Fold this sequence. Notes:
This protein has about 100 residues and is of the alpha+beta class. It has helices at about 55-70, 80-90, and strands at about 5-10, 15-20, 30-35, 40-45, 75. A hairpin with a 4-residue loop joins strand 3 and strand 4 (about 40-45).
Amino acid sequence: MPDIEIGREEAGAKGRYFARVAGIAGEAELTFTRRGPNMVSADHTGAPNSMRGSGAAMALIERLIADARRERFKIVPLCPYVRAQYKRHPEWSDVMAEPVS
């Protein structure tokens, strides 16, 4: 597994997680919107072609899940990639705002 650096930025209700992989150009990101004090929507996940297969996108989701557990917020999985991964990981149901479908 490559060395993946994850960061988080927020400005008002909007924010993003970003991932950088050692030795690979580009940056993957997962954008989100705060929908109240205890609710966040995962809006979009994207990675440049240079990062495909690096695990960066999954690392972004795992960081979002960890932050949701630590900060006690629920996630609305609007992003198709986040929704697809949630279907594969029902153990995330404790932080998701809707059941696996």
